[in-house]
Amino acid sequence: MTTTVVPVRREKRARKGGTEPSARRIALAPYLLILGAVLVLLLGMGYPVVWQIVTSFQKYGALQQLGGKAPDFVWFDNYIAIAGNSTFWAVVTRSVIFCLVTAFITIVIGVLLALLMTKVHAVARFVLQIALLLAWAMPVIAAMTVFIWLFDRQRGVVNYLLSLIPGVDMNGFNWIGTTPLLFFTVASIIIVWMSVPFVAFSAFAGLTQVSGEVLEASHLDGAGAVQRFRFIIFPVLKPVIAIVLLLNLIWDLRVFAQITLLQDAGPKSTDYDLLGTYIYKTGVAGLDFGGGAAMSIFVLALTIALSWFYVRNLVKEESR
């Protein structure tokens, strides 16, 4: 009996010793692969975030920026100041509404364009994709120059085309400086135009995972276009729509260049500000870096709050 048991035990030990190192290497491999990206993020973003947090608790103005005086810690005074600032809260409300509206419109138009690309001929689809790619690749400054010219009150193409309608006279109409509503309508058009290509390409990639046989069978069974989209297409696109919606909410909440360039061509009042431009005017132009840092930390918290719903659902799906 001893001659048969000992070899088996040695064989088990040999197997155990041979498999443990390889299993450990396989388990550590994913962490080693993402280590470089994590280090880059910590070095590239960690220091600015830490600096913003520290500065938000300080009185940091022009003297401190020039090195003439060390910043004094005022702790939560900057946060208390912005909490009692009615203008800041008006800008926050305006920014949240703006990002929600523009993100929703962008998702709807992007998904519709993706569905259109699956129905048209290959040549038409190629032309549409090239047009979307060019719109997406156009630099912000170049795009804003074109849009400001389009909505120019004297020589704008929009006013010219609208004036061709009988009974309509739009010559000299100021789209940018008349009311904040018209200003942000123009801004929304620009933001949506710049963001739609990314959503359309992402949704089109997701549509390639929809089974053509299932769509054909549902059509033969009498399902309409709305039913096919609701019960077959949308469940496949749901993860893609969730991530692009989250990204658009974050991008539209932090929009800065487009609003700044529109304000350069029109009014510069705080009624035409979003969070990005208001924080810039407070922190950089107003030389109140402590207050601007406190507002930036608030925007970071607001971004996390807006994205929490998606992150929570992602964690639930991963746990399943």
TrEMBL record:
<feature type="transmembrane region" description="Helical">
    <location>
        <begin position="31"/>
        <end position="54"/>
    </location>
</feature>
<dbReference type="InterPro" id="IPR050809">
    <property type="entry name" value="UgpAE/MalFG_permease"/>
</dbReference>
<dbReference type="GO" id="GO:0055085">
    <property type="term" value="P:transmembrane transport"/>
</dbReference>
<keyword id="KW-0813">Transport</keyword>
<keyword id="KW-1133">Transmembrane helix</keyword>
<dbReference type="GO" id="GO:0005886">
    <property type="term" value="C:plasma membrane"/>
</dbReference>
<keyword id="KW-1003">Cell membrane</keyword>
<keyword id="KW-0812">Transmembrane</keyword>
<dbReference type="InterPro" id="IPR000515">
    <property type="entry name" value="MetI-like"/>
</dbReference>
<keyword id="KW-0472">Membrane</keyword>
<dbReference type="InterPro" id="IPR035906">
    <property type="entry name" value="MetI-like_sf"/>
</dbReference>
<feature type="transmembrane region" description="Helical">
    <location>
        <begin position="181"/>
        <end position="208"/>
    </location>
</feature>
<feature type="transmembrane region" description="Helical">
    <location>
        <begin position="130"/>
        <end position="151"/>
    </location>
</feature>
<protein>
    <submittedName>
        <fullName>Inner membrane ABC transporter permease protein YcjO</fullName>
    </submittedName>
</protein>
<dbReference type="Pfam" id="PF00528">
    <property type="entry name" value="BPD_transp_1"/>
</dbReference>
<feature type="transmembrane region" description="Helical">
    <location>
        <begin position="95"/>
        <end position="118"/>
    </location>
</feature>
<feature type="transmembrane region" description="Helical">
    <location>
        <begin position="229"/>
        <end position="251"/>
    </location>
</feature>
<feature type="transmembrane region" description="Helical">
    <location>
        <begin position="289"/>
        <end position="311"/>
    </location>
</feature>
<comment type="similarity">
    <text>Belongs to the binding-protein-dependent transport system permease family.</text>
</comment>
<feature type="domain" description="ABC transmembrane type-1">
    <location>
        <begin position="92"/>
        <end position="310"/>
    </location>
</feature>
